[in-house]
Design brief:
By secondary structure, this protein is α/β, with parallel strands linked by helices. The protein has 2 domains: 170 residues, NAD(P)-binding Rossmann-like Domain (Rossmann fold, 3-Layer(aba) Sandwich); 106 residues, Orthogonal Bundle (6-phosphogluconate dehydrogenase C-terminal fold), CATH 1.10.3660.10. The chain is built from 12 helices and 8 strands. α4 packs parallel to α5 and α7 crosses α11.
């Protein structure tokens, strides 16, 4: 069985490592247009071989995994659409789903089964050097089958998700985008805003001597792939704006409580702590 991975960054490289460890009877081909990426992917064992051109990479593949920033997915689907092997299965790993599902519907032939995917896993570092075969262990892996996806294709992708250590969750594209906008995409903006605000301050050189674990933990996501963060915002604009407005309203309420002082401020912190601890116990 041949699997083609389009995009050998953190997610694509980790996927290759996890798949090759889970299944011995497959060949993993990776698309790498830069020589140093191809060399690193081969060195760490994420792929069996690499190709520089998309159509060469997907030739003869039973499964194609698109592991690029979301907007790049559109062009990749359009380019490979009619050139995919008959009954090929295509999936992706993009952090947004509604637009990706639309692109798949438009660009992929009816004979191709498309199952949208999004592993709820990642790190603040990016690139093939950060790849880790354990990245998906214990994570939730969202799956959104397209209208033309066969049961056999869905079962196969679900099985592979389980084999790499993740837990499949079937979810509608619109619901997915709304939920992850709050718990995954908004934190990227919060992290970026805090870094931007502090580093632009004339006091920043002094702050650096005091910044410790709290600042480091809250700003971790600002170290992520800027292209991926941009594409997340551009392909999930509506839900992100909704939750950003909700967050701004919450900040305004906290500002009021800080300004006024009193018991309400402590109650707000108690509620926040209880909410987080309840989530951690789930």
């Amino acid at each position: 069985m041949r699997i083609a991975i389009i995009g050998l960054g953190l997610i694509g490289g980790s996927m290759g490592l996890a798949l090759r460890r889970a299944k011995a009877d497959l060949e993993v081909v990776g698309l790498a247009r830069r020589g140093e990426v191809a060399a690193k992917a081969l060195e760490i064992g994420a792929v069996d071989r690499t190709e520089r051109y998309l159509l060469a990479a997907v030739k003869g593949a039973a499964l194609v995994i698109i592991a690029t920033p979301a907007i790049a997915t559109k062009g990749i689907m359009a380019e490979m659409g009619e050139n995919l092997p008959e009954a090929c299965i295509v999936t992706d790993t993009a952090s947004t789903k509604a637009q990706v599902m639309g692109w798949a519907e438009k660009s992929l032939p009816p004979s191709i089964s498309f199952i949208g995917g999004h592993p709820m896993a990642g790190k603040e570092t990016s690139g093939i050097a950060a790849a880790n075969g354990d990245l998906f262990q214990g994570c939730t892996y969202c799956l959104t089958p397209g209208r033309s996806a066969t049961k056999e294709a869905i079962d196969m992708v679900e099985g592979l998700v389980k084999q790499i250590g993740a837990t499949p969750l079937f979810i509608d594209a619109s619901e997915h985008d709304s939920l992850v906008a709050a718990i995954s995409h908004l934190p990227i903006l919060i992290s970026a805003a805090l870094v931007s605000m502090t580093t632009k301050s004339p006091l920043w050189p002094r702050m650096t001597r005091l910044a410790a674990t709290g600042y480091r933990d809250l700003t971790r996501l600002a170290s992520g792939n800027p292209e991926m963060s941009r594409d997340i915002c551009l392909t999930n604009r509506g839900p992100i704006l909704h939750w950003l407005d909700e967050y701004i309203a919450e900040l305004r309420e906290l500002r009021r409580l800080v300004s006024e002082g009193g018991e309400e401020l402590e109650i707000a912190f108690i509620r926040a702590r209880e909410g987080r601890e309840g989530w951690l116990r789930m």
